[in-house]
Recover the amino acids of this structure.
């Protein structure tokens, strides 16, 4: 392991990746991933992390390659392999990985977008001890960029994957402080109320799983409570419409019932 690191093998593999044929690229990807796995298995984590920190071009190369048509799948797989180690994940977080991957999630190329969502999920949820502080410290910028994936200009697949990832982040126990910050923001509530009106039932249900967190919050800020109360009739109608399409899904039915009960109680308080 030390010899391969001393020979600058990871950086050299990335340097020539775009010049290789398809099968050779797969071999390079396997070699890169095997090097990482072997270093961690053999207790060579310290020199591996030191290598990445002392070679600041490696992380940007992988992130840049994740948006290149010729090598995006190979770079994305190598990036996810790095993300499975907390110290390496931190290296990528400090090199702008979250912003770069969110930009790629919105790519018009379906495959690049899908790989970027997979990489972003791995980076944020596989190593929560390093990703949660990063998101917390960069909360406003993170939310602004993430919400761009939910805009009207985005297609159905992007919005659906973005809602799923955002819901998984907010409902993860490690992200409780971030969730509480999120559901205290009335502008974020409006985003998901608008998505409840989307033409796609899947988008509506994805938005509901985040909307329900705003409703369930026992410490709603005044502005959030006021918006819910002011729109309670329309929201109740929307919840009843969702109830008719959920099918045989007991947990979802329970969530809808809870949201309806809270909305109805807000109506009484508003009067």
């Amino acid at each position: 392991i030390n010899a391969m690191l001393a020979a600058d093998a990871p950086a050299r593999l990335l340097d020539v990746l775009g010049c290789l044929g398809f099968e050779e690229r797969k071999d390079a990807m396997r070699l890169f991933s095997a090097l990482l796995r072997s270093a961690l298995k053999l207790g060579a984590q310290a020199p591996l992390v030191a290598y990445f920190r002392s070679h600041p071009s490696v992380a940007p190369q992988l992130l840049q390659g994740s948006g290149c048509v010729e090598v995006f799948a190979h770079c994305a797989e190598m990036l996810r392999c790095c993300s499975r180690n907390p110290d390496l994940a931190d290296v990528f977080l400090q090199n702008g990985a979250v912003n770069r991957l969110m930009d790629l999630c919105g790519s018009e190329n379906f495959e690049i977008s899908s790989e970027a969502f997979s990489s972003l999920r791995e980076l944020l949820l596989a190593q929560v001890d390093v990703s949660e502080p990063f998101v917390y410290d960069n909360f406003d910028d993170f939310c602004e960029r993430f919400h761009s994936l939910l805009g009207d200009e985005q297609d159905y697949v992007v919005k659906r994957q973005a809602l799923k990832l955002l819901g998984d982040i907010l409902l993860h126990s490690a992200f409780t402080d971030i969730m509480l910050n999120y559901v205290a923001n009335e502008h974020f509530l409006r985003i998901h109320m608008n998505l409840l009106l989307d033409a796609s039932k899947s988008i509506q249900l994805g938005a509901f799983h985040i909307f329900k967190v705003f409703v369930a919050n026992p410490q709603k800020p005044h502005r959030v409570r006021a918006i819910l109360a002011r729109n309670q009739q329309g929201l109740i109608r929307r919840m009843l419409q969702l109830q008719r399409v959920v099918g045989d899904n007991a947990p979802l039915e329970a969530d809808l019932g809870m949201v309806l009960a809270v909305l109805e109680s807000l109506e009484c308080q508003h009067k």
About this structure: DSSP finds 18 helices and no strands in the chain. The two ends are 70 Å apart (CA to CA). The mean pLDDT is 93. The longest helix spans residues 250-270.
